[in-house]
Description:
This protein is an alpha+beta fold.
Amino acid sequence: MNLSLNSDVKFESFKKGDLLFKEGKKIEDCFIISKGKVGLVKVFDKREQLFYVAKEKELFGEDCVVSEQKAYYYSAIALTDCELIRLSASEMNAVIDAHSDWIGNILNNISGKINNSIEMISEHRISDNELYAGLSISDDDLIMIKKSLQTG
């Protein structure tokens, strides 16, 4: 599928620790990473659970945009200085709508499964060692995530 973006696409810079969107807030955008890393975090029982680290060329937040949810079901925090492309929810949905109804239905279904998986990871408190294996997350990064969520 060709994601033909309009000419208004601009790269936005974010600093390490910047909160890109917060769980529970209205869904407005998703992002493509040009440079850097972004942590996706779910809060469960007042405990921050990092469940994914998005890297260069990855899209994140799109699962929230294509879902039937009205609010983000996780937070996104810059783990490094980042350069991102912001895609509005309306722009993302226009691309999906242009490629038939069944694609939107498939994406909504996948989004629901992802949300359920995130809930299970958080609820069952999968061991941090198992979850973070290979993610290169330091204790300082986890402290920074907690602070970003508290100030955002």
